[in-house]
Each structure stands twice: as C-alpha cells, then as structure tokens.
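TL;DR need structure tokens for one chain.
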Amino acid sequence: MYQKSDLRGDSPVSIIGAGIAGAWQALLFAQAGRAVTLYERSDADMTLSTSHWAGGMLAPYCEAETSEPMIGRLGFRSLDLWRELFPDTPFNGSLVVAHPRDRADFERFAKLTTGHVRLDASGVGQLEPSLDGRFRDGLFYAEEGHVEPRKVLPELHARIEAAGGTVKFDCDISAEDLDGIVIDCRGLSARDEQPELRGVKGEMIIIETSEVELSRPVRLIHPRWPLYVIPRGDGKFMLGATSIEAEDTGVSVRSALELLGAVYAVHPAFAEARIVEFGSGLRPAFPDNLPRITVRKNKIAVNGLYRHGFLVAPALAELTLAYVQRGQIDNEVMRCV
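>> reply
TL;DR here they are.
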C-alpha cells in the first residue's frame, strides 16, 4: 500500500537509540543519501543497551516454533540484508539437539519448523566433532547464522559514519529537541510515548573453555530449560534462552543453575569452563510480542522487537526507509496515527 507521506523530501533524519534497531535505521538512511544523526545515551561500549546483552542469532526457521509468521517474513528479508551489507556474517547454520528423554519435545520442534535436515549420530559428530557420540540425532538449519553483538554494533556505527552519518554517544536527548524526521528506537525508555511496552528479561552467561569447540549455535531442547549455546570465538561461549516476565536486571540463582546445568548436559567438559560474565537485558515488547512501526507526523517509533532484535531490525529499517522515501506502507507492521 502507498500513501502520500508528510516526511518525504530532504529533511534531516535524527535517530534516538544506537542499539540494533536504531543502528540499522541510521545505516540504511545514510546509505540512501539522507543527512543522518544517531544519538545514544550510553557510551560507545553500549552497556546500557539491550543489544549489548543479546545472543545475536539470525534464526528465522528455529524461531518459528514460538513466533508469528510476521517474524519469519521479516527475518528472511533481514537475512538477505545481513548477507548483502555484511558479507562476513557467519552463516554456518543452527544445530538443534535433545536427549532421548526429551524426544517428544524434539519431534514437536521439528514439526513446527521448516528449513532443516535430519542428522543421525554420525551426522551430528561430523558437523560438530565436539558433540560426537553425545546425541543420537539432530536438526540442522543450514541457512541460519549468527553475529556477535558486541563486535557488530561498533561495525554498524562505523559504517554509518563511513556513509556520511554522525553518531553521538553520551547524548540523552528527546524528540522535542530535534527538527526534521525523528525515529525513536529507545526501547523501554519510550514508554513515555508508548505505555503499553513491557520489559521481558533475557539472562545470559559467558563461559570460557578450550575443551569444547563449536562452529555454530547449538540449541538443546528441554521442556523446562531450553538452552542455546553460541560460540563467541577464542574459546568463549554465550549461554542463553531465558525469557522472564520481570523488569529487574539481575541474573537469578535459579536461572544461573538452569543455564549451567543445561550446558553441562550438552557436553560434560563445560563443567570445567571458567565463568567470565553474568548479565541480563530487558527486551521491549508489546502485548502481542510483535514489532511495530508507528508514524505520527514527523515522528516514527520503531519498537517492540522483543527477542528478535538482531533478526528483524534490518527489515524494519528497510520498511521505514520505504515509507519516508516513497510513502510505502506495510499494513502488518506499520500504524499511522
């Protein structure tokens, strides 16, 4: 659908929030030739951003188990954009495994998802030698990938500046202070404008060991504490998967025990790993857990990315740019108020 946009022309574009949502908005607008300034309240380390604590998985097939079709549509388009603009992004696929006692949940996951091939025990061992003999079969999603948020965010910021944009850290600014087009990507901080947002806590642990090597994210299916293990290079792994309806930013004892117990179930050698870091981030979510682009005159809010930030942010930025440049509206994602 197309409509006449009040935002077309050569107005400068200001984006608030330099996490994954705002960074992709700034990059695509800068590459389109717009005058772009990206504002971030945190410093360049982005420790106040939810993106700092994210897993960075680009896994639309696996996410289909629990997400709406919209996430798949946006996710598949985002994979194309990651490949096009960041060709070094690892697309080594995802591996899903389970122990025999959790066979029913494994088969349920297989039925709810597509894009996978089944591997027998030998195939799992060939794909990930460290897991040889650990699992009798697995699901391999060859088209999926992953990024390391703490490495790719600085690269995104550098790309924005290379395209002619400006990135300003330690700058807590409001939309009322800015002229031209303002794109609000503040996450939970935007509840002053979007009070229906809620925070969903995602906890993570980073461990380090030289006894296990993985080439791709591995998901362990379990009815109570499903886990993903993401290789971060240099012997480091990120453990995650919790989604807790709470807005504190600590890591609970229960979650730590479950994550560490689950990774031990992936491989006993993880028991000797060194714990490097505990942390958590609050993911911004609307009641339906779906992302939304809201247009109000010269202000555009991009929010509610929930647990899919790195997966859907590129496609959302493309939709915002298409609206500003051509008045194109995606009726499933966009609201004009």
